[in-house]
């Protein structure tokens, strides 16, 4: 499906899952803004994507998503440069149990802020044309591990926030679909930080159990996560959906009991 004329903003897009998603969006002819903290990685990513897709299709903005004003500026620069915004992927995430406050800021607070900024630029409430938001959670929200308690809490939070906002979008006719993606283990630099005491603090002692889970469940390639992401972006029937991606079941959806008193 062509996304010609569509403009996407991807946080944490310079490497790992975000980078694979940026690649897929460019392959579908979207314009893409990569928002990432890592300047060197972001500049290298942009240079490689310019070489592959031609200049003018991809921009890199260095930004710490946990700095609310900087994130606001990144959204505004996107609209100033490309004239519109249609797709927002709140993907940037860290796994730091030692500096757990930072983990909450990046993984949860910034996803909430990124969702509100996306709505300001896309929602019919603000006179805009609509769009789609995907917030990245994790299978850790369903199968927790003592190795990463605060990370797990943030990923639960992303699901709850996203589903509630998706309901608000329907009820108040924002014209914006809001969905959540929960990958299992994916082969990215983040996953390799599992053994790092600097990140995991005292919970590093559970690393062998965590690695056994990786062996048991398998490790996915970022390209499969990008495939799931493209489905969430293009399937206009989806709102409030919780997509899971695992080695055993591939791309599938979590189902919830209907709410009852
Ligand atoms: N790799 C895995 O096994 C899984 C990852 N996830 C989630 O997927 C998302 C992406 O993770 P990966 O690609 O694996 O990680 P990664 O570490 O490979 O890439 C994350 C990117 O986010 C950027 N970033 C980090 N903090 C930032 C900040 N404050 N502001 C702006 N950019 C920042 C990094 O510079 C990096 O480019 C995260 O939300 C993660 O929690 C979910 C399930 C599994
Ligand atoms: C230091 C580690 C850093 C962070 C990244 C995290 O590891 C990542 O976000 C965590 C992933 C956790 C995955 C946990 C479980 C995976 C389960 C499966 O793959 C399959 C199990 C059941 C499938 C059931 C279903 O799909 O409904």
TrEMBL record:
InterPro entries membership: NAD(P)-bd_dom_sf, Sc_DH/Rdtase_CS, SDR_fam
GO biological process: prostaglandin metabolic process
Keyword hit for Oxidoreductase: yes
A GO cellular component annotation in the UniProt record: cytoplasm
Any Pfam family hit: adh_short
Catalysis performed (reactions): prostaglandin A1 + NAD(+) = 15-oxo-prostaglandin A1 + NADH + H(+); 14-hydroxy-(4Z,7Z,10Z,12E,16Z,19Z)-docosahexaenoate + NAD(+) = 14-oxo-(4Z,7Z,10Z,12E,16Z,19Z)-docosahexaenoate + NADH + H(+); lipoxin A4 + NAD(+) = 15-oxo-(5S,6R)-dihydroxy-(7E,9E,11Z,13E)-eicosatetraenoate + NADH + H(+); (11R)-hydroxy-(5Z,8Z,12E,14Z)-eicosatetraenoate + NAD(+) = 11-oxo-(5Z,8Z,12E,14Z)-eicosatetraenoate + NADH + H(+)
PROSITE patterns assigned to the protein according to its UniProt record, in alphabetical order: ADH_SHORT
Keywords, ordered alphabetically: Fatty acid metabolism, Lipid metabolism, Oxidoreductase, Prostaglandin metabolism
Keyword Lipid metabolism attributed: yes
Class of enzymatic activity (EC top level): oxidoreductase
EC number: 1.1.1.141, 1.1.1.232
Gene Ontology MF: a single term: 15-hydroxyicosatetraenoate dehydrogenase activity
Role this protein plays: Catalyzes the NAD-dependent dehydrogenation (oxidation) of a broad array of hydroxylated polyunsaturated fatty acids (mainly eicosanoids and docosanoids, including prostaglandins, lipoxins and resolvins), yielding their corresponding keto (oxo) metabolites. Decreases the levels of the pro-proliferative prostaglandins such as prostaglandin E2 (whose activity is increased in cancer because of an increase in the expression of cyclooxygenase 2) and generates oxo-fatty acid products that can profoundly influence cell function by abrogating pro-inflammatory cytokine expression.
The family this protein is said to belong to: Belongs to the short-chain dehydrogenases/reductases (SDR) family.
Protein name: 15-hydroxyprostaglandin dehydrogenase [NAD(+)]
């Amino acid at each position: 499906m062509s996304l010609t004329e569509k403009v996407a903003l991807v946080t944490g897009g310079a490497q790992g899952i975000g980078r694979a998603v940026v690649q897929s969006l460019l392959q579908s002819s979207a314009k893409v803004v990569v928002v990432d903290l890592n300047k060197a990685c972001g500049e290298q990513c942009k240079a490689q994507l310019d070489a592959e897709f031609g200049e003018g299709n991809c921009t890199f903005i260095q930004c710490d998503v946990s700095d609310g004003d900087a994130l606001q500026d990144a959204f505004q620069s996107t609209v100033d440069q490309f004239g519109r915004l249609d797709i927002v992927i709140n993907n940037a995430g860290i796994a730091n149990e030692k500096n757990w406050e930072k983990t909450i800021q990046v993984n949860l607070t910034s996803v909430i802020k990124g969702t509100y900024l996306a709505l300001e630029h896309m929602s019919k409430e603000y006179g805009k044309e609509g769009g789609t938001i995907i917030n990245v959670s994790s299978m850790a929200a369903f199968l927790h591990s003592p190795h990463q308690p605060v990370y797990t809490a943030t990923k639960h939070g992303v699901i709850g926030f996203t589903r509630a906002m998706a309901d608000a979008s329907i009820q108040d006719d924002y014209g914006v679909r809001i969905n959540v993606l929960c990958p299992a283990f994916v082969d990215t630099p983040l996953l390799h930080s599992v053994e790092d005491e600097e990140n995991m603090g005292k919970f590093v002692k559970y690393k062998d159990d965590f690695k056994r889970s990786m062996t048991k469940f398998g490790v996915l390639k970022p390209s499969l996560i990008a495939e799931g992401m493209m489905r969430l972006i293009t399937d206009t029937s989806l709102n409030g959906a919780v997509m899971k991606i695992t080695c055993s079941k591939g791309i599938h959806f979590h189902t919830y009991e209907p709410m009852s008193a």
